[in-house]
Design goal:
Largest sheet: 6 strands, mixed
Number of domains: 2
Order of helices and strands: HHHEEEEHHEHEEHEEHEEE
CATH topology of the largest domain: Heat Shock Protein 90
Structural class: alpha+beta
CATH architecture of the largest domain: 2-Layer Sandwich
Helix content: 40-55%
CATH superfamily of the largest domain: Histidine kinase-like ATPase, C-terminal domain
Shape: rod-shaped
Number of helices: 8
Radius of gyration: 39 Å
Distance between the termini: 108 Å
Strand content: 15-25%
């Protein structure tokens, strides 16, 4: 026997599995064996396995290397007579092939293909369940975030309307101007009502508009300082992130002082994190400064939104300032939007009291 003949014989025996493999794979996917049907399905697959072996033997018998003929000293086909060049079915060769290959075909080819089909089917079902579960979790998180944001908006509106109502008794023109600014602020809020994340520049614009409203009420008692790093203006932040912090600083810190005070809003980019801070020099964390730190409605909603959006990749800290007042520090992952919505020079960087 020469090496080419041995190679051709091996190819004839092995490659004839190839055209049958897709059908066996499809049968494995179509008729999976489960705990509740294993007897019925196993019997069905046994019939398929015998049919697979017969098909393989027929394909192998059609090749010129079906079996070795010791009389001729060469390989012969089970369906072709190489001497007479006629189609001749050699049943003895087919019988010998059936006896020799049936068990190997079933255990060495059919069962492994079906097992691979079952494994892939299980993997696909598991992946689909995980994707479906992840999709449901994402939808639930979005609904939760939207609910938190929806709670913040009427809370902000109620407090602002209360300020306007109080100012109406003292200065009608100023109250009317506050209503105009509030309508502009609400229009800005509606433009981003569907967005959970906006640029920091847009959030600062909203905060600046809110501070202008409060400044009409508190006048020279309210001073505002923005210290914003230019490379953070396009960073993505949760919508209505800073406004509740600024509102809390005014209501529970500065408004209680006859002389008022200053609010500082700062941002910085360090490594992979964005750092934001809202500070004031108001009454600080005293028994008369309102609810315990972090338990107010706005702060509680903000903390919950950060936890929902970023998990453990965020921090929210409230502490007393070194010279009084309160510092609220936030860190979140730094993610950038490449288009700034406002010019940073439009912000009121420093507003000094007259």
């Amino acid at each position: 026997m020469t090496f080419p003949s041995i190679l051709a014989a091996d190819f004839a025996h092995i490659l004839t599995y190839a055209p049958l493999t897709p059908f066996v794979f499809a049968l494995g996917l179509r008729f999976p064996i489960r705990r509740d049907n294993w007897v019925r399905r196993a019997s069905l697959h046994l019939l398929f396995a015998v049919a697979f072996s017969l098909a393989h033997i027929v394909l192998m018998g059609l090749t010129p290397y079906a079996a070795w003929d010791p009389k001729l000293g060469a390989y012969v086909s089970a369906f072709w007579n190489s001497q007479t060049h006629l189609v001749t079915i050699k049943w003895q060769i087919l019988r010998n092939l059936f006896l020799a290959y049936t068990v190997d075909d079933i255990t060495g080819a059919y069962i492994p293909i079906v097992l691979v089909a079952h494994a892939l089917s299980y993997y696909w079902r598991l992946r689909d369940r995980e994707l479906h579960s992840a999709k449901l979790e994402t939808q639930l998180a979005r609904a939760h975030l939207q609910a938190l944001k929806s709670n913040l908006q009427p809370h902000f509106l109620f407090n602002t309307m209360h300020s306007i109502s109080a100012l109406m008794l003292m200065d009608v023109k100023a109250a009317d101007k506050m209503m105009t600014r509030l309508s502009a602020l609400l229009r800005m809020s509606l433009e981003t009502s569907a967005a959970q994340v906006i640029r920091l520049s847009r959030e600062l614009e909203f905060v600046d508009g809110y501070l202008q409203i409060e400044k009409m009420r508190l006048r020279e008692r309210l001073r505002c300082v923005f210290d914003i790093a230019p490379d953070t203006l396009d960073a993505q932040v949760p919508s209505l992130l800073l406004q509740p912090l600024v509102e809390n600083a005014i209501r529970h810190g500065l408004a209680r002082l006859s002389s008022g005070g200053t609010i500082w809003v700062t941002s910085a980019h360090r490594g992979t994190d964005l750092y934001l801070q809202v500070s004031d020099n108001g009454v600080g964390l005293t028994e008369n400064s309102g609810p315990p730190p972090g338990t107010g409605f706005g702060l509680r909603m903000t903390r919950e939104r950060l936890r929902t959006m970023y998990g453990n990749n965020q921090s929210f800290e409230i502490e007393s300032g070194p010279e009084g007042g309160v510092n609220v520090r936030i860190s979140i992952p730094f993610r950038v939007e490449h288009e700034s919505l406002i010019d940073p020079t439009n912000l009121s960087r420093v507003e000094n009291a007259s």
